[in-house]
Amino acid sequence: MNNNHTTTPQSKQTIDSLWRLEKIILDTLNFKDVVQRICDSVLSELGYLQLGYRIVVLALIDESTNVLKRISISQTPEAQKALEITPVPFQNIDIPMNYSENICIKAIEESKPYVTHDWKDILLPSYNNEEARKIQEIIGIHTSVVYPITYHGKSRGVMIFSMVKSEEEMSEEEKDLIRGYTDVVGIAVQNARLYSDLEETSKRLDEANKKLKELDKLKDEFVSLASHELRTPMTAVKSYTWLVLNNKSGEITPKTREHLEKVYNSTERLIHLVNEMLDISRIEGGRVQLKLEALDLVQLAREVKDEFAPRASEQNLVMEIETDGKISPAAGDRDKIHQVLVNLVGNSFKFTQSGGRVSISVRLKDNMVEVGIEDTGIGIAKEDQERIFQKFGRVEGSLVISKIGGTGLGLYLSKQYIEMHGGKIWFESEPGKGSTFTFSLPLYTGN
Amino acid sequence: MDENLKKRILIIEDDEYLRDLYMEILTAEGFMVDQAVDGEEGYQAVTRGGYDLVLLDIMLPKKDGIAILRDLAQNPPEGKNKVIVVLSNLGQESVIAEAVKLGARGYMIKSEMTPEQTVNEVKRYLAEST
């Protein structure tokens, strides 16, 4: 037998036949289908049954257990019969890789074909000599040839062709074809294996993803329900405190008022905190949908200035709006950008002393609208600057106990909202002199 | 005040303290106020109809506010209610949109309102409807 099975010249007919076989076994990527087709197609497609071939078997190395495992067998009457009378189920015919008395193992080790007239050579040690001989006789097999299957230069298994004729009756063309075929089988098996692995992995990922989504939904429902449940008693605390503070239950002493104001402010802070946590849960779950519109930021800045006017006079702060000319509208979600502005201006109010100034500037720069909130406050200490946009990254030194705020979530939330818009947010600060927070938003283009 | 005396308001609210609160601040304004403690009671009252304003909570035992609005839309009561406004602590935009689609005139988040703001909003809705 020609040992050098990779360089055998192939006739045109062989090449045609090989091409047909390749097409059949490479047509599917499902591992089970591929290995079945590998065994069947030589017999059914090329009519090798007429040439005396009866059983084709594919066996592959299982690297985890280091055995050669039977994988598939042709769907021929002889194969069926062998499966019926076998003393060992087909799937259990495992040949240890170190059992070199079996010619399958030899074929793999030496990367060359082997031929035998004795089935014990391909069935030991799963069968004993007697069992192997008996079955071979019943089925009527004369010769079995074993071809290694290689891929990337490494042996992956064998194909066993069992026939009723002798080795001498095999034509060069048949041998040629089988050699060429086993080369293709190596590729097909490897592809199908990779694909099946991939399919299995992606199935598992899909399942994991589904579970995560369910969990996320549960979390969302929980946060939403919890925030509702928290808001109800907080509304009662806030409202009844308000009634007392507004003398609806009679006059109160200045000291009682002072204490109740703290109750009231704390309740407001709690409500605000719950709202922000709910917002964050929605953002992080990807459930926030922006409602983009053509947003006039100068107008929005004026509205925010008006909202802060009572606090400005209370804290003796000057508020200004600076803008140069007409500013094109930005693409923004009104509620979200309003929330960001209120948050940033609120921060400036918290950290700016009486007599100071808070100004909002709106400018066009590099095809973006830039909004800056500048204050003459105490600034941000160097050590605090890094974590300012983190959750609960609050800095110390708030000058005023704010009516709303101090949750430590506002800047984090602002950053998320601005970035969702495709904008940026940043700050410059000099301790003792003040801070400027700036965010940018893309221009509105109508889409 | 005299005008208010003729106005009938229904509060559908399961939380006792909040129900008391709305009763207190609205009756103080001279309104005639009825109350319902759960969704079923609320639905019965609302189908009797004749209210100038219904303040409807969303999360309610027995029948939630959205279900009430849906049933009202399908079987409008004979004695019409002029305005239904949602007064809830559930702030999801999807719920708000649903309520408005089903006929609610407006939506108030309880925790965002002071009693004074609630009263002012109630007056505004009543003024709109007359």
In short:
Chain B: The modification 4-aspartylphosphate is found at residue 57. The complex is a heterodimer of chains A (447) and B (130). With 447 residues, chain A is α+β, with helices and mostly antiparallel strands.
Q: How many distinct folded domains of chain B?
A: 1
Assembly level: heterodimer
Number of helices of chain A: 12
**CATH-assigned fold name of the largest domain in chain A:** Beta-Lactamase
| Overall tally of domains of chain A | 2
Strand content of chain A: 15-25%
Average pLDDT of chain A, rounded to a whole number, is: 87
Kindly provide the radius of gyration of chain B, computed on alpha-carbon positions and rounded to a whole number of angstroms. 13 Å
Rg of chain A (CA only):
40 Å
Mass-distribution shape of chain A: elongated
Largest interface chains and counts:
A-B, 20 and 19 residues
User: Under the CATH scheme, which class of chain B?
Assistant: Alpha Beta
Number of helices of chain B: 6
Distance N terminus to C terminus of chain B?
15 Å
Question: CATH-wise, what's the superfamily of the largest domain in chain A?
Answer: GAF domain
Low-confidence stretches of chain B: none
Description:
Chain B: It comes from Candidatus Amesbacteria bacterium RIFCSPLOWO2_01_FULL_47_33. Chain B: The modification 4-aspartylphosphate is found at residue 57. Chain B: InterPro entries: CheY-like_superfamily, Sig_transdc_resp-reg_receiver, WalR-like. Chain B: This is Response regulatory domain-containing protein. Chain B: Residues 8-125 form the Response regulatory domain. The complex is a heterodimer of chains A (447) and B (130). Chain A has 447 residues and is α+β, with helices and mostly antiparallel strands. Chain A has 2 domains: 12-201, Beta-Lactamase (2-Layer Sandwich), CATH 3.30.450; 290-442, Histidine kinase-like ATPase, C-terminal domain (Heat Shock Protein 90, 2-Layer Sandwich), CATH 3.30.565.10. Helices cover 49% and strands 20% of the residues of chain A. Chain A has 12 helices and 13 strands. Chain A has helices spanning 12-26, 31-46, 77-85, 103-110, 120-123, 129-139, 172-245, 254-284, 297-315, 334-350, 382-385, 410-420, and strands at residues 53-62, 67-73, 94-96, 114-116, 143-151, 154-163, 292-295, 318-323, 330-333, 357-365, 368-375, 424-430, 434-442. In chain A, the strands form 3 sheets. Chain A has a 6-stranded antiparallel beta sheet with strand order 3-2-1-6-5-4. Chain A has a 5-stranded mixed beta sheet with strand order 8-10-11-13-12. In chain A, β5 (143-151) and β6 (154-163) form a beta hairpin. In chain A, α2 (31-46) packs antiparallel against α7, α7 (172-245) packs antiparallel against α8 and α10 runs antiparallel to α12. The longest helix of chain A is centred in the middle third of the chain and has 74 residues, at 172-245. Residues 1-8 and 399-405 of chain A have low confidence and may be disordered. With 130 residues, chain B is of the alpha/beta class. Chain B has a single domain, classed as Response regulator (Rossmann fold, 3-Layer(aba) Sandwich), CATH 3.40.50.2300. Chain B contains 6 helices and 5 strands. In chain B, strands 2-1-3-4-5 form a 5-stranded parallel beta sheet, sandwiched between helices. The longest helix of chain B has 15 residues, at 115-129. The model of chain B has no long low-confidence stretch (mean pLDDT 90).
